[in-house]
Each structure stands twice: as C-alpha cells, then as structure tokens.
C-alpha cells in the first residue's frame, strides 16, 4: 500500500495493495545459498530466482511495515476475523478458558440503528445472545476502561502543564500533546511522522485498559478468551502490538463481523428481546463490576470525550471559569477554551478535537510551523454541554495552540468507524454518523468520570510507550523493525 493518501482514502481503513505481497527467493534458491555458505536471509547476486513466489504476511509483519497506515484486509482476516473467533469459540468447552466479551458504546448504537430499535432493547438482545448463544461468562461495556483513560489523561496533562509553567525542560511549550487511543493515527505517527511520537500521550485506549482490568479481576488460575467488539478495524492492530499482547484481548471484531456471526449461527434478533436487561447486565458482570458504570458513557464527543473532559477538569480546578466552545472551518475541528468568567481574554487552558486525515495532515504542517489557515466560523454545540460551556462567536478556534488534541483517524471520529453498520458510501456513512452522534448524547446513560472513584490501578494497566518505526528497504524481513 502506498503511504500517500488520496481523497477517497481519508478514513480509518485502506484496502489491500500489491505492495503488501512481497517477492522472495524460492526454496531451492535458499538451499543453494546455504550450500554456498551464505545466510538464508540474504540473496546472492546472480542466484535470484527469475520467477519470484508470493509469501503471506502476518499481522506482525504489517504492523512493522513503514509503508502504510493500516493493515490490509487479508492480513486482518488471517488473525482476527469472525471465522477465527468461531474456531476458537468451538474449542472453549473442551478447555479451561471462559469467554469474556467487551463492547464499545458506539457499537451498541450502531447495532440499534441497523436493526431499527431503541438502545435498551438492543442491549437486551446483545446480552442474551452473549449469554444464551455464545455462552460467555462475563459481558461488559468499556466505560470503566475509558474512565480510567480519561482520569489519567487529565492527570498527565496537568503534570505537563505545571512543568511547562515552571519552565521545566521537555516537550516544547508551543506544541500540544496528542491523544493516543486511535491506533490508525498512532501507527501513522510511528511509521511516517516520527516527530509526532514524542507528543503522543502514553495512555492506553479503553479497549486495552478493559482487557487489563478483566485480567486482574479474574483469579490468576482462571484463563479467559476475551472478544472485544470495536467500531474500527484498526483496533485489531492495537490488540496485536507487541506491548499489548499480554493484556488479555484475544480477538477484536467490528459490528460488521459480528453480524456475520449472527448470520452464520442463524441468530434471530427477535428471539432475544424479552429478558430483563438489568438482571442480565448484573449477572454477566465480573465480581466487583457495577454495570451502571461499565455499561454507561460520558459527556463529550462520540470518540470518548477526552478533550471535553479535560476542559471540565481545568474548569473544576479554576472556580469562576467557563468553557468556550469554538468550532473550526469544518465540522471535524473543535476547541474547548477555558477562560475566566469576569475576563474572557484570560485563557486558563484549552483543548481540542481534530478528526480525519485531511485535518491530521494540516495538523502536521501546522505543528511544523507552516502558516495557519483562514478565519474560523463558530457554530453552536449540543445541549448536553450547555450547562458548563458557552459558545463565543468573537473567538477563533486554534487547536495547534491548545494543550491537548483528541486526534482520530476517521472523519467524524469513532462514531464513524469503518467497522460500524453505516453503509458503504461515504455520504451514507456520514449521514448515519450524524444520527448516531445524536443518539449517543440522548440514549446512553451518562456518568461523570471526574467524580468516579476507581481505586488504585497499576501503571501497567493504562500506560504505553510509543516509538518511531525506522523505515527499511528489506521488505522480506519487515518484522525486524519491531
């Protein structure tokens, strides 16, 4: 796949390309090399096969490749597909493992929209399918993992803010830190934009935090097979990172793929709509997990609300302040600027959202010091933030001067993830995303992650380290880059 992006590729997923299948010497050539005392990993001049053969690429190889942003479809399907899950699921009764399923809130809404039913009915059906058809032991939402990610994002940003105010060395004061919960953007930065890697905040995504929490909750002797249902295909890559494999996420599927499971197992949704959701949610919750928490959501964007929640955090630390919402010249850029109520020109802190690769490419140029764009038009925002936010038409959004940017690869963010049941055309997907965004604010039970006591959580549960991946021309041994 080419590292260059066309306008049609500006989403979280790129289709397979010929570069993903690389030629290698034949087995007879390898044998000849060994006989001549050369390394089997090298090609001797004059000994190359005139008819190169194709070799398959593993998911690890694709992660190591610096020539693309996301993985190809055939690579994903080889390791994390609905058929792979079903094969593993059929073997669970004869093993000591239990099935555990986690579901992102965007996926629950996508199912509800696709089947044309209210969210609470869809949740009922999902829980019953998990329990009565797939025979899972536990089923959880990802809000508990997200709340931990939000809290530690806020704490890390505040620590950096204090260091900068004190003139400490480290990250340049003019550059914002970047959210790292979107694997499409993280891989893009690691492979092609190494200058962005030091700016990535070392906080794991809700998917990975949830996996760690589940693993810590169960007794050490209890093995689990963890299926995670996520809105985009890139989450498969995140679960397959070398530093994520031990976190307890065995397989990642999207709603599209889970629908294929329902079709293959001949599951009729209507057969699973008539059970008390509250009892089912409690019965399927792990010990100590409250479904009113992990099955909920929080205020902010449909991608998790990290930017808005940090603005709320700054507001709470500065009594007498307000949050000003400033939108960009397209709907995928927004700033939350915290100012004093009695002096709107006094900026106490700021944070922003920035979605889609067109905006990401602009962000890269802006962070590298190129000229800024034109005037920004400010539009009003949804009612769920009206109690703590003011819309100020005389201010201009400037995400590149904020302290933190919630970056997502998909236009529209996670509510427009490529794995959701939103149709194939970009027009249909964006229209569905707008509907899901409205339902996200109205139908999901909302909790306040800032006032949630989560107890002590080990750093290993929520911290990552990111590293730039060096480019290599040795396409046959790509995995050496990791």
UniProtKB/TrEMBL annotation:
Domain Iron hydrogenase large subunit C-terminal: 97-418
Superkingdom, natural source: Eukaryota
Gene Ontology molecular function, alphabetical: 4 iron, 4 sulfur cluster binding
Pfam (any one): Fe_hyd_lg_C
Transmembrane segments: none
UniProtKB keywords: 4Fe-4S, Iron, Iron-sulfur, Metal-binding
Segments for region (Disordered): 24-47
Gene3D superfamilies membership: 3.40.50.1780, Fe-only Hydrogenase (Larger Subunit), Chain L, domain 3
Keyword Iron among UniProt keywords: yes
Keyword Iron-sulfur: yes
Biased composition (Low complexity): 24-41
Family: Belongs to the NARF family.
PANTHER family: NITRATE, FORMATE, IRON DEHYDROGENASE
The protein's name in its UniProt record: Cytosolic Fe-S cluster assembly factor NAR1
Organism, as annotated: Zygosaccharomyces mellis
Lineage: Eukaryota, Fungi, Dikarya, Ascomycota, Saccharomycotina
Gene: NAR1
């Amino acid at each position: 796949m080419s590292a260059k992006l066309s306008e049609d590729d500006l989403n979280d997923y790129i289709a397979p390309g010929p570069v993903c299948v690389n030629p290698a010497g034949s087995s007879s050539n390898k044998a000849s090399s060994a006989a001549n005392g050369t390394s089997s990993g090298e090609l001797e001049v004059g000994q190359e096969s005139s008819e190169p053969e194709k070799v398959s690429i593993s998911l690890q190889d694709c992660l190591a490749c610096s020539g693309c942003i996301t993985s190809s479809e055939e690579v994903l399907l080889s390791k994390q597909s609905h058929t792979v899950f079903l094969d593993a699921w059929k073997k669970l009764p004869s093993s000591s493992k239990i099935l555990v399923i986690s579901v992102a809130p965007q996926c629950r809404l996508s199912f509800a929209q696709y089947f044309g039913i209210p969210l609470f009915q869809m949740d009922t059906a999902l829980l019953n399918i998990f329990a009565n058809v797939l025979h899972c032991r536990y089923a959880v939402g990802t809000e508990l993992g997200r709340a931990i990610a939000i809290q530690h994002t806020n704490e890390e940003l505040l620590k950096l803010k204090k260091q900068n105010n004190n003139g400490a060395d480290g990250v340049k004061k003019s550059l914002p830190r970047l959210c790292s919960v979107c694997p499409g953007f993280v891989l893009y930065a690691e492979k092609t934009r190494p200058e962005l890697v030091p700016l990535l905040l070392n906080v794991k995504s809700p998917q990975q935090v949830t996996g760690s929490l589940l693993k810590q909750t169960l007794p050490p002797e209890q093995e689990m097979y963890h299926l995670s249902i996520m809105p985009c295909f890139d989450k498969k890559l995140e679960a397959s990172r070398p530093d994520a494999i031990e976190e307890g996420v065995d397989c990642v599927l999207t709603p599209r793929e889970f629908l294929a499971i329902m079709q293959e197992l001949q599951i009729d949704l209507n057969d699973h709509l008539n059970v008390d959701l509250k009892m089912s949610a409690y019965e399927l919750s792990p010990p100590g997990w409250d479904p009113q928490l992990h099955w909920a959501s929080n205020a902010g964007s449909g991608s998790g609300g990290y930017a808005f929640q940090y603005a709320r955090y700054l507001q709470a630390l500065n009594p007498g302040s307000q949050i000003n919402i400033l939108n960009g010249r397209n709907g995928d850029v927004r700033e939350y600027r915290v100012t004093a109520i009695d002096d709107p020109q006094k900026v106490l802190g700021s944070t922003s959202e920035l979605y889609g690769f067109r905006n990401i490419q602009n962000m890269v140029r802006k962070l590298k010091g190129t000229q800024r764009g034109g005037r920004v038009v400010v539009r009003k925002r949804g009612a769920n933030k009206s109690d703590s936010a003011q819309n100020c038409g005389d201010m201009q959004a400037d995400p590149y001067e904020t302290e933190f940017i919630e970056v997502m690869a998909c236009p529209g963010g996670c509510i427009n993830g490529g794995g959701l049941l939103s149709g194939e055309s970009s027009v249909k997907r964006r229209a569905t995303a707008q509907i899901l965004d409205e339902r996200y604010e109205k139908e999901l039970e909302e909790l306040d992650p800032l006032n949630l006591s989560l107890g002590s959580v080990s750093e290993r549960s929520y911290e990552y380290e990111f590293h730039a991946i060096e480019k290599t021309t040795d396409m046959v041994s790509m995995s050496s880059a990791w």
